[in-house]
Design a protein that fits this description.
It holds the Pfam family AurF. With 308 residues, the chain is mainly α. It has a single domain, classed as Ribonucleotide Reductase, subunit A (Orthogonal Bundle). The protein contains 15 helices and no strands. Helix 12 packs across helix 13. It is globular. Bound molecules: fe (ii) ion (2 copies).
């Protein structure tokens, strides 16, 4: 886990009751939350010579294809990868919110856990607005999930219950959180993109603490067979995650003649593998600690290069 993820609620949360953790997160939300529509200067002009994410995090950085690109093309790749990530985040947050809303329908409306679930739902709603506005501002088309996949994705919220909801949330949030920390860490990145990423990183730190706490507590009580099943299916998320971040649509939009070859180059790119390994390191540690790193999952994480 990255140091920046750690919030007061995280330290020692395994021993604290869920209500205490939820209460701390609620207080943290009151102290530091953003309304991106007004808290981000959407009128500020973009700098044509700046990247949209740190170049070192781009999927083709350091490849032969990268060497053949001029600066303008590299910046365009960063714009399209930024937009692809935001588009993916929007549908992910949509699913999380549907899951949260279903969760609170069965929960006690007086409990702090319910109140924080609803607060997180509000955060994600604002994030979707922020991402949509950012896509509009950078002047690119959003990346659409193909219809057949959208139909499947729309069924996920029906299955998000208990530990499944917190695991789904954590899988998306934790890996992306670390990626965004790497993306923002470069003076050559557009101030607007930095602002969007920083707002998201700050608010997601609380969501990550909440999901981790929920998982720890539920894993401790669940039957061993259920933990074993979860531990061995989690790895399949890695395949979906990787596919989402090396989308041929991005390479086509940049004007690369063979988008599928570009995807293969990204998949084999050692620089990008290192980025992905760093993104997964905190989550891998958490899975080991909670007994959620099963043999099948470990094999998958290794095969896709997220784990040594
Ligand atoms: Fe979010
Ligand atoms: Fe979140």
């Amino acid at each position: 886990m990255t140091a920046g993820n750690t919030s007061p609620a995280e330290s020692g949360s395994a021993e604290l009751p869920r209500e205490v953790v939820s209460n701390r997160l609620l207080k943290g939300s009151v102290k530091r939350s953003y309304i991106p529509v007004v808290d981000i200067d959407w009128e500020a002009p973009l700098d044509d010579d700046k990247f949209f994410v740190a170049p070192k995090t781009l999927s083709l950085y350091g490849t032969e294809l990268w060497d053949r690109m001029d600066r303008a093309q590299r910046i365009e790749l960063s714009r399209q990868e930024f937009v692809n990530m935001l588009s993916t985040a929007i549908w992910f947050e949509n699913i999380v919110n549907q899951g949260l809303l279903r969760h609170v329908m069965h929960a006690d409306p007086r409990s702090s856990e319910t109140h924080y679930s609803l607060t997180e739902l509000g955060d994600e709603t604002r994030h979707m607005v922020m991402f949509g506005k950012a896509i509009q501002k950078v002047g690119a088309e959003h990346v659409r999930v193909p219809l057949a996949q959208r139909v499947v994705l729309n069924t996920i919220p029906f299955f998000l219950r208990g530990s499944g909801l917190w695991l789904f949330a954590l899988l998306g949030e934790d890996i992306t959180d670390e990626l965004q920390r790497q993306m923002v860490d470069d003076p050559d990145v557009q101030p607007l993109a930095q602002r969007v990423l920083r707002v998201h990183i700050l608010e997601e730190a609380r969501h990550i603490s909440f999901a981790r706490d929920g998982i720890r507590k539920r894993v401790a009580e669940m039957p061993r067979w259920r933990r074993a099943v979860l531990a061995n299916v989690l790895g399949f998320h890695g395949i979906v995650n990787q596919q989402a971040f090396i989308n041929p649509v991005v390479y086509r939009r940049v004007g690369l003649p063979d988008p599928k070859a570009a995807r293969r180059a990204a998949k084999a790119n050692e620089n990008f593998r290192l980025v992905q390994k760093r993104c997964f390191a905190g989550l891998a540690e958490f899975f080991e600690e909670t007994g959620l790193m099963g043999r099948v999952s470990r094999k998958i994480w290794k095969k896709i290069g997220y784990l040594d």
